[in-house]
Amino acid sequence: MSTKTIARGLEGVLFTESAMCFIDGQAGRLYYGGYKIQDLAEYSTFEEVSFLLLHGHLPSRQELQAFSQKLTSLRALPPALLESMRRYPKNAHPMSALRTAVSELGMLDADEDNVSPEALYEKSLSLIAKFATIVAANKRLREGLDPIAPRADLSHAANFLYMSNGKEPTAEETKLMDVALILQAEHGFNASTFTAIAAYSTHTDIYSAITAGVSSLKGPRHGGANEAVMKMIGEIGSVENVGPWLENLVANKGRVMGMGHRVYKAYDPRAGVLEKYASIVAEKQGHSKEYAILKEVERRAGAIYNPKGIYPNVDFYSGVVYKDLGYDLEYFTPIFAVARISGWTGHILEYTRLDDRLLRPDAAYTGQLDLPYVPLEQR
Ligand code: ACO
Questions:
Q1: Which of 61, 230, 252, 370 is the most exposed place for a label (fewest CB within 10 A)?
Q2: Does residue 71 contact residue 209 with C-beta atoms inside 8 Å?
Q3: Is residue 14 part of a domain?
Q4: For residue 221, what pLDDT band results from cuts at 50, 70 and 90?
Q5: Distance between CA 84 and CA 338 in Å, rounded?
Q6: CA 270, CA 217: separation in Å to the nearest integer?
Q7: Hey, whose CA ends up nearest to atom 50 of ligand 1?
Q8: Residue 1: what pLDDT?
Q9: Same structural domain for residues 281 and 344?
Q10: Does 185 sit in the ligand 1 pocket, CB within 6 Å?
Q11: Is the minimum distance from the CB of 265 to ligand 1 under 6 angstroms?
Q12: Distance (Å) from CA 263 to ligand 1 centroid
């Protein structure tokens, strides 16, 4: 019998080093590459943050210009992928469509298996650029419309909105999308990042590793929680019903979606930033009912759960913001993926530099040994 201790859920296990992200879960602090998330959300752009995650420092003006131009040049999808996407079932979840499209991108890359640092970097930029195009194209196709080709004169956030909704976004809408993308671009060794690195550690191609990351993000305990929050709001229906709904949830040992986090035992700083924007949106656009329900859930559920270290996480308010930007709830997790692709690829690149070792944890064996093999006809 093994004497090693089991870290259930791999909690607290350090398997490598990283300079990309620092999370102080007790104090509710988050940094990318040493910069406070609040400062990045306020002053930066998704392109700049992606550069920071891939290179480890903020870009100079020239570096940012070259990086942004490169991303812009990689936005268009291969025609064969677009053709294939037209045949995806209309009722397939957009996360399933994204997972399939990333996998297809790999098949369409003649140099798919190249895992040299240069090739991984190039493919990372291509994936960061193309995730937005894939999600927007899928949205259009599901609405029975033709995909819209990317525009080179728009920023990543503005172009994503333009390809998704067919109209050029306002400066406010672009800022809102930029903030949402920045807040979700990176978060250490969460399940999807770990899944992507574990897959990459076999030296499979980066498309396979990222496909695995997308698959992991799809789950309701991870990226799928933002969708679950909007369903929860629908279920509650009114501010008056929050009390009875919560009583029932507590009695049945249910979970408030968008609350609780493996690392944060305080208010998730990303939720704080999004709450500010959600309140502006609620005021301006008339999504005040959803926002009011969430505020009441936060107040009432907070009284029960905050003492246990369960607070709103990034998903709690993100749905209200995404809805305002023209996305149905099924697109909330894909938008998360459009952001997180920078974190996933950044971590894969960092891991290649630091360790590049096959990941292979173990379990304490609890089965039997030396059982006599009984032939099938005698069992
Ligand atoms: N509502 C009510 N109770 C909760 C919640 C919640 N949202 N989250 C945790 N708890 C309770 C659990 O019931 C459990 O109670 P018990 O000890 O009495 O059984 C205790 O807190 C610990 O729960 P675990 O699941 O063991 O804690 P873990 O660290 O694994 O939880 C998780 C993290 C999965 C995110 C959890 O908080 C949860 O399910 N939240 C709701 C889903 C959600 O919002 N996910 C998004 C996470 S953020 C992201 O991925 C971007």
A1: 370
A2: no
A3: no
A4: confident
A5: 20
A6: 18
A7: 222
A8: 55
A9: no
A10: no
A11: no
A12: 10
Residue 26 shares a structural domain with residue 125: yes
Number of structural domains in the chain: 2
Q: 226 CA distance to ligand 1 centroid (A)?
A: 14
Which tokens go with 307?
């003492």
The shares of helix, strand and coil residues in the chain, as percent rounded to the nearest 5, are 60, 5, 35
CB-based contacts of 325, cutoff 8 Å, min separation 6: 161, 165, 169, 173, 176, 177, 180
Which candidate, 350, 281, 340, places its Cα nearest to that of 121?
A: 350
CB atoms within 10 A of CB 236: 21
247-259 pLDDT tens trace: 999 999 999 999 9
Residue 225 Cβ contacting ligand 1 at under 6 Å: yes
Assess whether 232 and 305 both reside in one domain: yes
- Kindly report the number of other CB atoms within 10 A of residue 93's CB atom: 17
**Is residue 310 lining ligand 1, measured as CB closer than 6 Å?**
yes
Beta carbons of 216 and 195 less than 8 angstroms apart: yes
Alpha helices (H) along 92-205: 94-108, 117-142, 156-165, 171-184, 191-200
Q: Quick one: which H or E segment has residue 194?
A: helix 191-200
Q: Are residues 319 and 337 in the same domain?
A: no
Query: Between 50 and 3, whose confidence is greater?
Result: 50
81 with 101: CB under 8 angstroms? yes
Domain that holds residue 130: 21-76+87-221+331-354
Tokens of 274: 């999004």
